[in-house]
Amino acid sequence: MTALLAWLGRWVLGVLEVLGHHAFFFSDLLRHLPAALRRPYLVVAQIFALGNLSLVIIMASGMAVGFVLALQMYYALVTYGAAESLGLIVNLSLVRELGPVVAALLFAGRAGTSLTAEIGLMKAGEQLAAMEMMAIDPRSRVLAPRFLAGIVSMPLLAALFSAVGILGAYVVAVLLIGVDSGNFWSIMQHQVDVWRDVGNGIVKSAVFGLICTFVALYQGYEAKATPEGVAQATTRTVVIASLAVLGMDFVLTAAMFSTP
Questions:
Q1: According to the model, what pLDDT value does residue 52 have?
Q2: First to last CA, the chain
Q3: Which residue, 120, 151, 159, is CA-closest to 213?
Q4: Smallest Cα–Cα separation from 252: which of 194, 199, 192, 203?
Q5: 152 domain residue, yes or no
Q6: Average pLDDT per consecutive 10 residues, the chain (260 residues; last block may be shorter)
């Protein structure tokens, strides 16, 4: 019994140490955000690297999700004579859940791993140490612009994902299956609330962007300065960011949509 309590105590202390280290790192990033705002060209360059270069996978995935969602929902709704609600179901599914969540998972896999590998290689190549030798804080010059760019890029990518998904659903439902175009759009326009549905989806995607970017930067900055260390940090980024996004999605959904 004593050994079990000792092991449990060591485990709790280890968890608290890790959480404390993450909290200090996050507070440092927030403290250096004003420095990033004073260098907007760095933020814009990182928005291009994180957002624009992720457009292909985001838009292709959004189109594919829209195709499949329209087919699946149509076959389910036509059984109950509610095929005219297809546009509404597709729209709510994308802007509330699938758009922010799937876009965040893709963002973690594409942009998050890129960030971790970039920062890890800079650490392994002693570029971060060289900045410190020149009295340049790498957290304000390297990490903060990337952190801010990730938070800005993620809502834009999620919005594009949802928009392309709705367009894909329209192609399948109206042009291929034959659902009435007026019903597809009119019910969607009347039933989807801009602030409650679209606005909450944007808030979700911004939170997911913060999580994915923070995890990627932390793993890259704390990676071992070896090829194996960078590879392991890149893998941890995908796993931790994906699990964090899925867990936070439940919390945000419960908070946003639990009351009518």
A1: 87
A2: 49
A3: 151
A4: 203
A5: yes
A6: 78 81 85 86 89 90 91 83 79 88 93 90 84 83 90 93 91 84 79 80 92 92 85 91 93 76
Number of domains in the chain: 1
Read off the amino acid at residue 86.
Answer: L
Domain that holds residue 110: 46-257
Q: Where are the alpha helices (DSSP H) in the chain?
A: 2-37, 40-50, 55-77, 86-92, 99-107, 113-124, 127-133, 138, 144-170, 181-191, 200-221, 227-257
As a whole number of angstroms, the distance between CA 59 and CA 103 comes to: 9
Q: Is residue 208 part of a domain?
A: yes
In a domain? residue 9: no
Q: What is the 3-state secondary structure (H, E, C) of 94-117?
A: HHHHHHHHHHHHHHHHHHHHHHHH
Q: Is residue 55 part of a domain?
A: yes
